[in-house]
Amino acid sequence: MNILVINCGSSSLKYQLIDTEEECALAKGLVERIGISGSRIKHETKEKEKEVIETPLADHKDAISLVIKCLLDEKIGAIKSVNEIGAVGHRVVHGGEEFSDSVLITEEVKKAIEKNVELAPLHNPPNIIGINACEELMPNTPQVAVFDTAFHHTMPAVNYMYAIPYEYYEKYKIRKYGFHGTSHKYVTERAAQLLGKDKEYINLITCHLGNGSSISCIRHGKSWDTSMGFTPLQGLIMGTRSGDIDPAIVTFIMEKENLSPAEINEILNKKSGVLGLSGISSDFRDLEDAAAKGNERAALALDAFEAQVTKTIGSYLTELDYCDAIIFTAGVGENSPDNRAAIINALSQFGVKLDRWRNKTRGREAIISSNDSSIKVMVIPTNEELMIARDTKRIVEEM
């Protein structure tokens, strides 16, 4: 079955057409600047070089129409008929408490996704737009929603409840939800395969480290705890997000700077993190280059990030009776040997040891721990699109 995986942002759309039998991408691409001047698509297939087409795109319906046109194109396409698309899998960021698994999209499901817009105002609206556009363009093709939050529904209440008046949970569902669930789920299943263990008996700590970062404690193949919370702002220092801070800082800065809720939200989400600390960039590669040249603030930003990752891994080790592996994934986790080394070397009291030669790997699966390490350390490139395709196929076959 061919699955079209769609990930809609506010003005962008990422896609892959995945053959689920071979588990490979037949085509993939990115549509940028939707509804803005200079809109374009970058499209590529397995055999052909990347094509860049610039054309006005008024909305996401136009963007998806262009995606389908490229997929069917005689020269740059991958299929001959839209009927070769068995289903569409949509990445939806927030499923709230309603969805603990991926689900076939119905009118009731769309209403529930819309209800959770207040929990993910930047992400759920474009996700809904993408769903509606695909339904209009491919009315006979099943549509499946795959939620970033669903994997974390197995967390116990002790790990997802906040110590605020309980009425706020009852009235507004304020609790930890966790994100990056599709990525954590993928690397969990892949680690079980690589280690030759039944997923139900595997314990892991999965580190999705990138511009957005989260760590999950995986107990018996299920999410037991995770660092992101009610929103993706909680947890680790990230590219532009502050991560955990004293809540009183928020009102203190608002009063001192005379800021509105929207303005403080903008600062904490888009002007903080390693960007705010360094004053240079939210890109960890830029920070590593600057730190190597003696920039103290860049070095501070990296050290603070690595310290938080180490502390979180250490705290999660206390929640597991054993740990099969610590997994690094996503942009920084997969591609920064220096970052991984700083984190793992700080865990030496747990008997975790890195092999510095194995650790030189970038962007490929590898065991990077030494033979005498108490816990294996692995790099597993994430593949959220494949995970979405797998879930979509499963849901459609259950229809």
UniProtKB/TrEMBL annotation:
Positions bound to Mg(2+): N7, E384
Residues that coordinate or bind substrate: R91
Enzyme class at the top of the EC tree: transferase
Subunit comment: Homodimer.
UniProt-listed Enzyme Commission number(s): 2.7.2.1
Domain of life the protein comes from: Bacteria
Binding positions (ATP): K14, H208, L209, G210, N211, G212, D283, F284, R285, G331, V332, G333, E334, N335
GO molecular function: acetate kinase activity
Cofactor note (record): Mg(2+). Can also accept Mn(2+).
Site (described: Transition state stabilizer): H180, R241
Organism: Peptoniphilus koenoeneniae
Compartments in which it is found: Cytoplasm
Record-annotated active site: D148
Protein name as it appears in the record: Acetate kinase
Swiss-Prot/TrEMBL catalytic activity: acetate + ATP = acetyl phosphate + ADP
Family matches, as InterPro entries: Ac/propionate_kinase (IPR004372), Aliphatic_acid_kin_short-chain (IPR000890), Aliphatic_acid_kinase_CS (IPR023865), ATPase_NBD (IPR043129)
Names of required cofactors: Mg(2+); Mn(2+)
Record's keyword terms, sorted: ATP-binding, Cytoplasm, Kinase, Magnesium, Metal-binding, Nucleotide-binding, Transferase
Membrane spanning residue stretches: none
Stated family: Belongs to the acetokinase family.
Known function: Catalyzes the formation of acetyl phosphate from acetate and ATP. Can also catalyze the reverse reaction.
Pathway as given in its UniProt record: Metabolic intermediate biosynthesis; acetyl-CoA biosynthesis; acetyl-CoA from acetate: step 1/2
NCBIfam families: ackA
